[in-house]
Design goal:
Elements (H helix, E strand, L loop, with lengths): L6 E10 L6 H13 L6 E8 L4 E4 L4 E6 L9 H4 L13 H7 L6 E4 L5 H13 L3 E4 L4 H17 L3 H9 L2 H18 L3 E4 L2 H7 L8 E3 L16 H8 L6 E6 L8 H13 L4 E6 L5 H8 L3 E2 L6 H10 L2 E4 L8 H8 L4 E4 L14 E4 L4 H12 L2 H14 L7 H34 L1
Helix pairs in contact: 1-16, 3-4, 5-6, 5-7, 10-14
């Protein structure tokens, strides 16, 4: 990028920046760190939600701005129950609009298509001519379906009215389709759409030319997540897990969106058949008490862990389990692979292409506890095979995953540069046309 004009990009992440935030927020925190190493080509401002307006300078060319929401989803918790993350449902964010219209930016990057930041960016881009690029980080349509179903049952129960709304009228699926339509409209207004999976490529290509649809990978800090940190004596001393016990690691929110119920029941069944398997849940959420009650001494739930402890736990476990069926790209799966862990994922979760079944992990064909128990028992009951799989992961996968610097330089910067150059060419053509007419 040397010798080219500096890009000034506003990245819009309509979620709270907080400890324990999910993969969407963490992705942009890591990209911001990578941007610090591109001072000659990039100025990056990441907008996030927060209690008050605040600007944090991360470096000479990178900053994070938090803005208070106009209408936070916190206001709806009585209706929906606890939500894993909070966003802004307003169709317009005046403070953000002023920030984006200051003339500082030559590129707007939205990271969803549904909430206040992205909808405001659409209108600012249309008014100013700033190019708009979108990337997908959260399976919002599927999550909408799930939370709609939960909310209906919470209000109406599981009787005739609940069945009418969820089954006969199929309201959750209708809400999902509404979100998919909104995503298509947003992408159609963008210069480029960045996606992560084959089905996202197909959908985006229905509203944009195929060459306008690009892949966005997720990166890793290989200095943090590494097989060399494996130390079972440390895990035993720190958390009281016997060194002879196989450990299945889950990292993430302990809530219904992660489909934990069949995994927990599978662990109970496996241990009931005499195969020792300990579940380690690194994360918090409303299902924590139920998991502890169900598995007792066969589970450890320490809550959120700091990065150093978490990276050591990754390396010390024997396999990573990800039962979620609603994922775009799971940072957790990539961190597990980078740590040398075989991974067990749901076939419906969108992460199966990272797994070579029988070599670097397994793909569970359905979400039943029986099927999960079958897979986990075969792995935990054969420690020698697990060790071979760890070696295969370390040899074939962990070092092949890109760094966050690679993702920024190879996936994002070329798209941002192209969008800006195209917008400038259009603006120049319009000026020339106006001059000729005059």
């Amino acid at each position: 990028m040397s010798g080219l004009p500096i890009l000034s990009v506003a990245a819009l992440v309509d979620l709270e920046q907080r400890q324990g935030a999910g993969g969407h927020v963490k992705c942009w925190e890591r990209l911001a760190e990578a941007a610090l190493r591109q001072p000659e080509s990039l100025e990056l401002t990441v907008f996030m939600s927060g209690e008050a307006e605040r600007t944090t300078e991360l470096g000479a060319n990178v900053r994070c701005v938090t803005l208070p929401p106009v209408f936070s989803t916190r206001r709806l918790q009585a209706l929906t129950g606890p939500l894993p993350d909070h966003t802004d449902l307003s169709p317009w964010h005046p403070l953000l609009a002023r920030r984006l219209s200051e003339g500082r930016f030559n590129m707007l990057h939205t990271t969803d298509a549904f909430f206040a930041f992205s909808r405001t960016a659409e209108r600012v881009a249309a008014r100013t001519g700033l190019p708009l690029v979108n990337s997908i980080h959260t399976a919002t349509p599927e999550l909408t379906r799930l939370f709609a179903e939960q909310s209906i049952h919470k209000i109406c129960g599981h009787g005739w009215l609940g069945r009418l709304l969820t089954q006969d009228l199929d309201l959750p699926e209708r809400f999902k389709r509404t979100k998919l339509a909104r995503l298509a409209r947003h992408q159609s207004r963008c210069a480029y759409a960045l996606v992560s999976k084959a089905d996202e490529v197909r959908l985006a290509s229905e509203v944009l030319p195929p060459d306008r649809v690009r892949m966005l990978r997720r990166g890793l800090n290989h200095n943090v997540f590494a097989p060399e940190k494996r130390d079972r004596a440390w895990l035993s001393a720190r958390f009281g897990i016997p060194e002879t016990m196989s450990v299945a690691l889950f990292v993430g929110r302990l809530d219904p969106s992660k489909n934990l119920a069949p995994l927990v029941e599978a662990i109970r069944q496996v241990n009931g058949r005499g195969v020792g398997l300990h579940l380690f849940c690194a994360g918090d959420g409303r299902e924590k008490a139920a998991i502890l009650g169900r598995l007792g001494s066969s589970v450890t739930c320490p809550g959120q862990l700091g990065e150093e402890d978490l990276s050591r736990v990754y390396a010390c476990a024997d396999l990573l389990v990800m039962p979620s069926e609603i994922e775009v790209v799971s940072n957790v799966v990539l961190e597990g692979l980078a740590s040398g862990l075989p991974v067990v994922v749901s076939a419906a979760g969108g992460m199966s292409h990272y797994v070579q079944p029988g070599l670097t992990g397994e793909v569970v064909g359905d979400s039943s506890a029986r099927k999960w128990a079958e897979v986990l028992e075969a792995l935990a009951g054969n420690p020698g095979h697990l060790a071979e799989m760890r070696q295969a992961v370390t040899s074939s996968t962990s070092h092949a995953l890109p760094s966050w610097d690679q993702v920024l330089v190879e996936d994002l910067l070329p798209v941002w540069r192209a969008a800006v150059e195209e917008a400038e060419a259009v603006a120049m053509g319009q000026k020339l046309e106006a001059a000729c007419r005059s």
